[in-house]
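Support case: user asked for a sample of complex input and structure output to validate their parser. Sending the pair below.
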Amino acid sequence: MDFGSINPAVLIASLMVASVPIMLAALGELVVEKAGVLNLGVEGMMIMGAICGFITAVGTGSPVMGFVGGAAGGAALSLIFAFLTQILLANQVATGLALTMFGLGLSSLMGQGYNGIKPPSTGKVPFGPLTDIPVLGRILFSHDWVVYGSIVIVAAVWYVLKFTRAGLVLRAVGENHDAAHALGYKVQRIRLLAIVFGGAMAGLGGAYVSLVRVPQWVDGITAGAGWIALAIVVFASWKPWRVLIGAYLFGGITVLQLNLQAAGSRIPVEYLSMSPYLITILVLVIMSSGKGRASLNAPAALGQNFHAAR
Amino acid sequence: MTRDTLLTVEGISKSYPGVKANENVTFSIGVGEVHALLGENGAGKSTLVKMIYGLIRPDEGRMTLRGQAYQPLKPREARAAGVAMVFQHFSLFDALNVAENVALGMGNPPPQRALAAKIREVSQGYGLPLDPERLVGDLSAGERQRVEIVRCLLQDPKLLIMDEPTSVLTPQEVNILFATLRQLAAEGTSILYISHKLEEIRSLCDEATILRRGKVVATCTPREKTARELAEAMVGATLTPPERAGSALGAVALEVKGLTVASANPFGTSLKDISFAVRKGEVLGIGGVAGNGQDELLLALSGEMRAAADAVRIDGVGVGQLGPNDRRRAGLCTAPEERLGHAAAPDMSLVENALLSGAVRKALVRNGFVDWTATRDWTAEIIAKFDVRTPGTGTAARALSGGNLQKFVLGREIMQNPSVIIVNQPTWGVDAAAAAFIRQALLDLATAGAAVVVISQDIDEILEVADRFAALNEGRLSPPRPTKGLTVDEIGLMLGGAHGMHEAEGLHHAEA
Amino acid sequence: MLRLEKRPTPSQAWAWGTPFLAVALTMVAGGAMFAMLGKNPIEVIRTIFWDPLFGEFAWYLRGQLLVKAGPLVLIAIGLSLGFRAGIWNIGAEGQYIMGAIVGAAVGLAAYPTESRWIFPAMIMGGAFGGWVWGMIPAILKTRFNTNEILVSLMLVYVAQTILAMASTSFLRNPEGSGFPGSRNFNSYPAASNPELIAGTGMHWGVVAALVTVIWAYILLQRHLLGFQIKLAGQAPRAARFHGVNPNRLVMLCMGISGALAGLAGLFEVTGPAGQISIDFNVGYGFTAIIVAFLGRLNPVGILLAGLLMALTYIGGEMASTNLGLPSAAIQAFQGMLLFFLLAVDVMSNYRIRLFTMGAK
């Protein structure tokens, strides 16, 4: 095996790219869960984002429009979830699963005839001479705008949740919907908005997969990234900056195992390709076993439906 | 005394399918007046104040505030008009701190830092000290109420609505609260005070409106009436207090020794070294303010939380390590506080709910298979004997009224003929007639030779039924004392006096 | 606007009515989807729901119905027990794969011995493989409080990788000239699961599914464990008050559903599929989730729902070959069915009232 062929700077640069989809989807889900809603349909919304983004980008020739389309696709699917769980009070777990199954089917239906097409490429941000700084230039200044945008969104979500009134109300709704209702907050409306935001973010993440990461359309292209995003929210104990760390960690594992495969590692390919999933399980075990105060970040009303009794 | 009128309520009605919650309710509150809204559970008090606070809209009638038409569509509008409300079940968020909780209840809160300073200032000014940085989940019930009150006071209310505020307070804390309320009234804030506790109303309130079944049955000045007159107006009938035939005490049936259990809930109270013994034929009352370990004590005794074998003994046999069904086999039955969701499964039928706790002692299961015929028969027996009003045995538990479900739950446990029975808040949220019935049934069980433990936050209830009294305070139990001759002040001190009031105690002693 | 009013007692009529309403609504919405794809919706729906039963090739397709419904019902029954108890095993697909692999490995280890004990041993192996795969999330949940939904799902991906390894390395047919895939069980009588009555599609897996339906029915109606499962799902605190040990229940439900999914995998690999191959799993484990809900988590309902879902598979294939309907359309159609089911489910617990804004 030839470890020498793995350049650390390239590795870090590519893990930043690899982590974007799960980071965006996990951030969206974090906001949804902070509002007290468990949407297990992230995988379905991501793949809808992937195909909608792909179709829009191919149709308009503009990658930016592609991302807009991806976000819209994810948000549209999340509206079904919002309607079922918030208006009709359907079970959130079952509805989330349905969302994923429906999304996988519908995306593959919409993707008929898009196989093998190349989407317009998403340009790198021109940093001029900065790109040429050794090592750092490769790591920090060689990416497309979505990579930087995703970090900005992490900061924005963190700021809004922690310092603004909207964030406070959102957390309050997720903590105790009855009390929030008694104070006159519109629990359903707030949750609905959070769900749509989560859908848009998952769609954005999905669009990044089909427009930048792969970049082409294949059925089932997200390959479980949505589920890993859900796990990252738990890993991050509902904190935005930890989502960033978690996403980089998983991006790193994915990139590393691909690099090891390419470098002809003696570890069988199968073990390497199951490693992200096994590590997800391991991380879940470590993060969940801490009891007591650490679990306080989990929204208390997570997954419970709200019905104003009287 | 003549006052300017602040709020008038004229001909307000509100109905829900099958219930008329309020019917043609009319009354008024003057500026700076402490006005009592008196009524039993289910008399329509909460519905009425929710309409005043804009949470629900009346079907008919009108309200005026300072002579202007007042018709709040949402709480925010009520708050803007100067109406604030302290809820019975607090509208607080455990995982948020005091300042954030206060901010959530305000229309237009200042930045956090300014707000924190303001909270300190106002809470000290009214003798209700609070640390804005603390997590609300860590506060005692009395302190949590302070958060609600301070949240209201920061908005400079003209009318403060308080829904059953003293149910979570020790007698000392009640005195402090009353001092605060009097101070507010003297400053010109009107207070609408909801309660069913007559002595409190007589000592605090200027005027009273009495509701029964959604209608105003009397308006009076409570100081001029006796507690008995008020009670009769409220209940509409004369109630006989429960009686008990004196009986000799037998051997110790339940012995708890050095019971220490950590709470499963991060904001719960762990039990610390609890010891007591109850004899056959005896009623032990365990008092305490909400959140001092009552739930945990019930869980540890029912077997839902395990302890060392010898920490809990029934008839001398250690059962501390056993689960609920093994303890039932040994003769111990329990009735938790929360009826829907803990003592009973809301969506299941009464038959299934009877099986829930009766499976072992009534031998309703053979070789793992449920004998549904026997279970149905037994359910019918409970319903008949405890006068549970229900369309049938197949009705879902959630369809029963609070009082009827409580009668069913208590009946289910009592009819298993336990040698030890432990009940938590047996009459909470139950109308007076049902409460009297339940207390009588517990006393009858004791007379028949069972050891009875009544955990309750209602001191009057404990004094009415218990032979001895012990107080639960921050997870510790005081040594039991005979109830005969105990004064309210002594009980208050046993309950821990005023929680978290060290700075304020000196300030208010004179007034209290 | 809609407003929901909680019913005092859940409506029995609606509980039975909702699946039919959901199927009807799905046909309407699905028809619209087919129309958008440029197909004649009535023709497509007839091809899916009518032709397999009464059309030209019904004599063959009716048998296929049981072949497809068998594993769906077997898995869905197991899942329904957990779902009722609030335990969400969504990794049945992985348990199905692992059951097939372990069971097949037992049989292949005995090759080419002929003994009547081989097939029963394989059945045990299949159940064991699925059980182990189900117990992993169960143990992690009870010991470390880990979310069983995510773990069981992650294990599907792991199982798929193991399946790829099995068919390319450790279970590969040594006489298969290097092609991936194991020996074919249809040519190894002691280890095969043949059609029991020609033309019916009935094989041992279908028998097992029927037995499981009866077993689950009795469990839920008459046995204390069935009561405890329902209780734990509806009111977890009341279940603890009753004396249910939640950890034991998690182990039990995950174990049973894992073992049943493993059995389904074993019967499939020894019968209709014939061999372990990379694309052995076709999503029964996920479709079974829809089957479980469509059957209202009721054993008899699941039997009917399994047959209906099998029909959409077979009809979908027909529509794909005869009318050129993309196979993904059927997947979307099935997802839609679950949506409508969840949507109309609200009727059994709530009354729906319409109101105009302002007249609240």
